[in-house]
Amino acid sequence: MAARKKGKRAPAKARGAMANAIGKGHQVWLAGLGALARAQREGPKLFESLVEEGGAFEHRQRANVRHLAQGALKELRETVDTRTAAARGKASEALDNLEEIFQTRVQKALQQLGMPTSQEIGALSRKVNELNRSVQALGRSKSAGKAPAAPAQEEAVF
Question: CA 9 → CA 2, 5, 15, 59, distances in Å?
């Protein structure tokens, strides 16, 4: 028979390290298979749980957005109200100034035309009332042949 060649064998220390690495690789393989088995077994439960959490999260976020939108709308309304009030105030002031200018110009035009003012008409009206009372008093005194009596309290209306 033929003689066997004696080959060099790896030292025992190296063989132990390689066996250890193969063992660790096998454990990683088994862990992967375990994860796959668990995912298949618990996947539907996990999916339902994630759907519930997602729904609750969506509800909270919608409520937050609604609250923020309402706050922004309130601030916008306050800003618009403030600016509208300021614009109304300016418009009112401008109209008052325009009215005053118009009245001043009309009064000047009436004065240039010789129209009397309301104070002048009031003074004239009082004088006419006094004259009417005097005339009435004279008329009574002539008909009665007496001295003029106290003037009556009648006023003429124009």
Answer: 20, 12, 9, 69
Percentages of the chain per state (helix, strand, coil), in multiples of 5: 80, 0, 20
d(CA 137, CA 149): 6
Q: Could you read off the pLDDT of 109-152 as tens digits, one per residue? A: 888 888 888 888 999 999 999 999 999 998 888 887 655 555 55
Cα radius of gyration (the chain): 56
- For residue 16, give Cα distances in angstroms to 21, 53, 68: 9, 49, 66
Decide if 140 contacts 148 (C-beta within 8 A).
yes
DSSP state of 146: S
Q: What's the CA gap between 107 and 21, in Å, rounded?
A: 113
3-state secondary structure 51-98: HHHHHHHHHHHHHHHHHHHHHHHHHHHHHHHHHHHHHHHHHHHHHHHH
CA contacts within 13 A on the Cβ side of 116: 8
